[in-house]
Amino acid sequence: MSVAPMLDWTDRHCRYLHRLLTRHALLYTEMVTTGALLHGDVQRHLRFDAAEHPVALQLGGSEPADLARCARLAQEWGYDEVNLNCGCPSERVQRGAFGACLMAEPRLVADCVRAMVEAVQLPVTVKHRIGIDRVEDYGFVRDFVGTVAEGGCRVFIVHARNAWLKGLSPKENREVPPLRYEMVARLKRDFPELVIAINGGIASDEAVRGQLAVVDGVMVGREAYHNPWWLASWDRQFLGQPGPGLSREEVEDAMVAYMEREAAQHGTPWQAVARHMLGLRAGLPGARRWRQVWSDHRLKPLPAREVMALARARP
Q: By the 8 A CB rule, do 178 and 159 touch?
């Protein structure tokens, strides 16, 4: 079980929340480009809390040497896995010649993987789509996986939709191309020696169980973010392990303590953390008011603990 890398969502604050709910699910960073790491603020991009383990760094790039250097940084900073993004369809990513457009160049992807595998002891994995544009032939994704596996990749996370490189926004690319789960199951049958995980539209216990019957892993994106309490059952239900066992109130208490530490150590405003937990009480009586209090911009000057007291107060 894992939580998908989601730009602007799965930052270190979000991952800290998720780790309070599940001990064993793998957490992914937002995609970080090789250029941002090699020419930008490494600490800003790579800093994370030790409590987040196991955590994977997702990289965006297409130059083997640059990816190898960034994989070494990931290892130095203590990440548990390096993942190459071959699934993002946005035009901004395409201009950098990486993301989903890399699926058209499997030999290059294999070279990128090989360079990272040779540079680090960490697992190197690839996240990709089942096709690009209107190429819906199974042979396309089969040959992509087979070629990239030659570079040393043993784990493939497959978003079970095509990526349309023109004509659809990133949001539409998560919704318009049809889900074709059978393609991912077929990959597992054709490559039994590889670890094949599935991503895309999975939002219930029943859906997870159905997929785990035919593939090796399930990655959940938006549902995990908007309904984080679901993660509290993952360890026990799907991983056969005890979870943290915290109540919603205990999770909120822990997040406020985290907000206070972040403010003291790094000057982080509590709102930057609180935005990720707005779905924590989804479906409960009073959830709407609780969410409104935590997202009320007029309360920004107050300490986080006072905001929590207001959120919990009876109307």
A: no
Nearby residues of 42 by Cβ (< 8 Å), 6 or more positions away: 73
pLDDT tens for 100-124 read 899 999 999 999 999 999 999 999 9
Mean pLDDT of the 149-168 span:
93
- Is residue 5 annotated as involved in ligand binding? yes
pLDDT tens across 83-95, in order? 999 998 876 565 5
Q: Is 267 marked as a binding-site residue?
A: no
Residue 46 confidence (pLDDT): 98
Q: Is 177 annotated as a binding residue?
A: no
Classify domain 2-238 at the CATH topology level: TIM Barrel (3.20.20)
Active-site residues: which are they?
88
Q: Given phi > 0 = left and psi -120 to 50 = alpha, else beta, which region is 121?
A: alpha
Which of 88-92, 192-196, 289-293 is least confident?
88-92
- The pairs formed by 101-106 with CB atoms below 8 angstroms and a separation of 24 or more are 101/132, 101/165, 102/62, 102/128, 103/128, 103/129, 103/131, 103/132, 103/140, 103/141, 103/144, 103/163, 104/132, 105/62, 106/143, 106/144, 106/147, 106/148
Q: Supply the pTM of this predicted model.
A: 0.95
Question: CATH fold of 248-312, please?
Answer: Four Helix Bundle (Hemerythrin (Met), subunit A) (1.20.120)
* 123 contacts 115 by C-beta, under 8 angstroms: no
127 is in an annotated binding site: yes
- Residue pair 239/232 in contact (Cβ under 8 Å)? The answer is no
* The total number of residues written for the chain in this structure: 315
| 3 state DSSP class of 290 | helix
